[in-house]
Amino acid sequence: MTDQTWFLPAVLGVVLVLLVVGVVLLAPRRRRRGQAGAPPHVPTAQAPESGVGEEPEGAPEGGRPGLVDVPLPETAAPSVEGPEPVASRLVRLRDRLARSGSFGQALLGVLARDHIGEGDWEELEDTLLAADLGVGPTTELMESLRTRVRVLGTRDADSVRALLRELLLAQVDPAMDRALADSPSLGADDELHPATVLVVGVNGTGKTTTVGKLARLLVASDRDVVLGAADTFRAAAADQLATWGSRVGVPVIRADRYGADPASVAFEAVRAADEAGADVVIVDTAGRLQNKAGLMDELGKIARVASRRAPIAETLLVLDATTGQNGLRQARVFAEVVPLTGIVLTKLDGSAKGGIVVAVQRELGVPVKFVGLGEGPDDLAPFEPDAFVDALLA
Fold it and tell me: Which amino acid positions bind GTP, per UniProt (predicted)?
């Protein structure tokens, strides 16, 4: 009886210990299963230090980062949105530009007068210059317009409008190639690589926002896109880009610390896009203009390092259309630093400044490829010369 009294509590004790151990061991597994439907923790792409011209070596401990989604906090994470189709956004943006047609109205107001004197021609020239058309283009257009009006002897508003449209369209130059490289192409190794798009411009022009809007535009065109947050010197830039990426389900490669090497982030973004078979990788760059030498070194290194994985297909300059001649000075600096292939004009919500399209194309010799006409996520569209001129003269 004494043996049984001792044995039973011992057995119960052993069983109790085993139960406790089992609960402890199984608890983590149950938590993981319970979180299966939630966004996983995603490591960011750390940017290892590398010298100018050197290919970044390796990644942070735990392996080189691959194609990753950067999640938002659970309280702010939106569902994936469906971007507006390209065709419908073009119609909406045309209408918006036409409704602010103060530029065309001012021109036609002068040209429709019964008698156009020297003072009227000067008023017309001032209107063109105020619209940021530029001195050279304005002089050419005025000379052509005065000659044509004098030779044709026309005075009715419709005829003058048609003549003005023809001359303005010639200044905008519809023959320029405005297509964006948005498909994989063969590299030097005869392998297909994603189209790499570098986006440059000073802070405050809407550069990072433009990268997000461009991603939405490409997603609406059924392109697979990866974003690279290589503006590592502005703390909010990577977070802002991650927000844009989350909204349309586009993965973002970013550094895990402030001030990381931008070229390394760009390289990781291109490598991740390449390995995932994406169509396009868009790299956001820093927009500092404190000194041209530093800007040249940084952008040159980004382009050089990123192109070791895939050739650079596009370098787009983002300009604020409302900054006028200051924007043109910025454009000159960037054109000296990197070979630009296209321009994105933001904040073109008032056609009174529409002449900047002509001025910047004339200055840089590269086409305006996209325009932004508002703050909405889909307020970015491919630039159409005919529609733009028609909207100016509406």
Answer: 201-208, 284-288, 346-349
346 is in an annotated binding site: yes
Please tell me the distance from the alpha carbon of residue 137 to that of residue 351, in angstroms, as a whole number.
17
243 is in an annotated binding site: no
Tell whether residue 203 is among the known ligand binding residues: yes
Q: Is 287 annotated as a binding residue?
A: yes
82 is in an annotated binding site: no
| Residue 331 token pair | 């454009």
pTM for this prediction: 0.78
Q: Are 251 and 245 in contact (CB under 8 A)?
A: yes
201 is in an annotated binding site: yes
Residue 50 has pLDDT above 60, yes or no: no
- Tell me the pLDDT tens digit for each residue of 151-209: 887 766 677 778 888 998 999 999 999 999 999 988 888 889 999 999 999 888 889 99
The third-level CATH classification (topology) of the domain covering 88-172 is Four Helix Bundle (Hemerythrin (Met), subunit A) (1.20.120)
Query: How many residues are given for the chain?
Result: 394
CB of 70 closer than 8 Å to CB of 254: yes
pLDDT band of residue 239 (cuts 50, 70, 90) is very high
284 is in an annotated binding site: yes
Q: Which CATH architecture has domain 182-340?
A: 3-Layer(aba) Sandwich (3.40)
Say if residue 202 carries a ligand binding annotation: yes
